Amino acid sequence: MKGYSGRFLKVDLTSGSTSFYEPDHDYYQRFVGGAGLAARIFLEHGDFEALPLAPEALLIFSLGPFAGLHLSGASRFSAAARSPLTGHWADSSCGGNFAPELRYAGFDGIIVSGAADSPSILIIKDLEAKIESCPELWGQGVESTTSILKERFGQSFKILAIGPAGENLVKFSCIMNDGHSAFGRTGLGAVMGSKKLKAIVLKASKKTFDVQDPENCKRLVSDLNNRTKESVTLGVMRENGTAANLEGGVHLGDVPIRNFTSNFWEEMAEALTGSTLSETFLVRRANCAFCNVACKRIVQIDDGPYAISRGPGPEYETIAAFGSLLGSKDLAATCKAGRVCNDLGMDTISCGSTIAWAIEAFEKGDLGLTDTEDLTLTWGEMTTVIDLIPLIAHRKGKLGRLLAEGSVSAAKRTGGDSASYTVHAKGLEAPMHDPRGGGHGLALTYAISHRGACHVFSPMLFMEMGACYYPEIGFDLELEPMSSDNKPEAAVVAVALGALENSACMCQFADREITIPEWVELFNCVAGMNWNIEDMMKTGRRIFYLQRLVNHGFGVCAKDDAVSSRLLAPATDGAPEGIEINFEEMKRRFYELMDLDPISGMPSAQVILDHDLATETAGVMGDLPCRGQEFFDQALSRSD
Amino acid sequence: MEFWKDETEPIKAFLALFENAKKDPELSEGLKKVNQLIWFDYSEDGPNCSFHVDCRNGEIKVGVGKPEDQPDLTMSLSADDAHRSWSNKLNPVMAITRKKIRVKGSATGLLKLAPKLKRVASIYGDTLREMGWENKIIA
Questions:
Q1: Which terminus of chain B, N or C, has less C-beta within 10 A?
Q2: What is the pLDDT of residues A234-280, one digit of tens each?
Q3: What would be the CATH architecture of the domain defined by A445-636?
Q4: Which of B97, B98, B108 sits opposite A236 (nearest CB)?
Q5: Does 3.30.1050.10 match the CATH number of domain B8-130?
């Protein structure tokens, strides 16, 4: 197929060997790439019994068909594995510059298995790959690792690296691209660390790849780039970053405050919003490869306790996770915390959320001074928080070791009432959009997401905001965010679109400028899919069902499609005060619309046939029971 | 038009709205932070159906028609949708997505006003009452 390379690099770190793997052409047509293709490859090559941090576990990097196009939003890719944070299937998405380079080198992805004896790096130059020992890099931060490798190989090499958190198997450690873009969620840095793979170094000689219909592709890419350049909403994001509307979000009740205990804090809104960052610490805007949205920030803080040199600045999730969520309105502190997390290689969402849980646990007496080794945890006390981040990354002290497991495991170990104020779905800490104010549909999509509480699993956030209008597929609903009306119906569209977005590996901001017919045209002129709209939407649904099938192989059932009680309790202040989320009815209706079994959570036989998933189902379903908590506890125990 | 009998009515109402908004300390401060020259262009409902607000340099000036200076931001929509918008009954993101509102220029400044739309709607309701146009208030 055009667009794709038709080739994955297979790396066995145990033997030190590399080889090529050519997926069935049919996989590309049916599962697109990125998250969808990774799930299918796992079914063929993976082992449901392998613990997340065991050598047998797979770590799959997978491109979509558009990586390498000079198209805004197209330079993302997926990483997928069994998550050490949640115990089940997970994928994460990363922007930056690695994806196009990997396509130009001649690969659609990398499948990593085994574990090296000593810290290693994988070096890819075009189609040649080799593994080298790198003991000198173990223990280095992401920033210095990236810098040392670029010094050694050349500044034009693209780097994926883990930090000390990944080395220490912190359950929410991430993988960083050139120190600024992240596979943030679900702890895939720990999977890379368990394999003793410190970094991947990549260079392609040529900078082109073949597409099906070059002339139409060029025209369409040009049209779309012009649109993203002229878009009002993306213009706002270019100017003030992804936190451009944080202030508006506070007034809607979308921005979580003090571990989701409040939905309104007026003074914080202006202090943390994107325009304030632009007016204070911003020195430059930055972008992923070929993207004219340029929502990334480069910041510098010269003075004070949170001084940082010129470098990557925080985006919305980091600002909220290390700001409002911790009871702080100190923007400089969010910049510092984000920078420290980046260098240590930790997901800012899960890290901020786990610390928020710890502060509440300390406040409520579930954690005492003995547990914290005399550290006093207080809302808004950011110097303590920033001192705590390295303790987590290095698993130092009682508190560092406890929090390195993530909030859900930490609560299990802590006991008392502490599980009641964890905020997550399927073990993944919730992102910085509170469904009570941000939109009730988010509660549903957090719950039904295979990876857990994730705002980019589907475009529901944008749908409830009013930023989606797709009459060609029947989505012309005018949704009221703080209502459950029409949310299951919207979710049916959202899960298919989300699966396509995460498999085509397109940015959800730039995506909003692409119409449904243009999506189809893009797939057809790049990859020769020969789809019509229904073919494309069916593919999206197929991927959604496939990811559920894989999760079922790990024991996930309908009862796991849930969110923490805190996300459903009526808000006590702000715009959503007192409003109930009708979660169970939304879930029941969604299950009905998607023909999912209310016990197993699996698609019906008819759905499996309609979506051409019989082979995949046979590989997963068997007589697998819902495995229960013991199975997950075993999966989440450290395997080192 | 659903809410207006001719093109002069909406402009009268919106100019009065902004004159009242200037007297409200919270909104007045909010408008100054916008720091832009904005042209509200409703000319699809009549050639003279537009007004402008100049929030630059710490002042708020309101005038009929297109401004003499080049506007930083132009918002084009129907006078009916403008009425819904000032009444806080039109989701601006949805309206932009569905091309009911067409925006030219940077909307960054205007985003600062988004949290104050409820306050604007309250003053707009009072303004319509003062003008004897209670019947135009959207329930």
A1: C
A2: 999 999 999 999 999 999 999 999 999 999 999 999 999 999 999 99
A3: Orthogonal Bundle (1.10)
A4: B108
A5: yes
